[in-house]
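Local shape tokens:
==================
===
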Amino acid sequence: MQAPLVRAGIFGPPLHPLSQARRRDRRGAMTMLTETVFEDDRWQAFGLEDLAERAARAALAHLGHVPEDHLISVLACDDARIAALNTEFRGKPVPTNVLSWPSDERAAEEPGAEPEPPEPDPPEPDPTGGPLELGDIAIAYETCMSEAAAQGKDPAAHVTHLIVHAILHLLGYDHIHEADAQLMEAHEVRILAAMGLPDPY
């Protein structure tokens, strides 16, 4: 689910200290695309940090974007936390599986069209060489696990799909109109297939 547009950094400062370290490491080893903030330790045991990184890299690469040029914050939380966020930003006082907050409005003007690629604002390159923040994602443990069990899906595959889904929201994709939903789902299926995962639909 996409929450109303707010600036990146909803779970803390727009750039966390770890993000600053990644900026300085641009010439070194492969930098991380995702920054995971753990509020629920069950997500650490689940391996969400690595899973989110793989999903984000696959999604951006599929769409022709350079993963190292971007940054996504992921809040690994529980149902209570996401219900509070869902209430605050969407007026729905119930838990959900995943929420996303794009850092900018990127939706296409016409239903079924591809969104514009993300660009810095202003469009000039960042003089520090830092990544472009795409936005924030929150994902809830209990809802994700109960959905996977109810649908007979592997939990890791289900969570990977939800992360991919949320990242596409950050990039301007949506499913309000049928044509947009078909486009978004087609991208999800191809991204997951490239990761060796089954069609979630």
Summary: The CA atoms of residues 143 and 180 lie 25 Å apart. The radius of gyration is 16 Å.
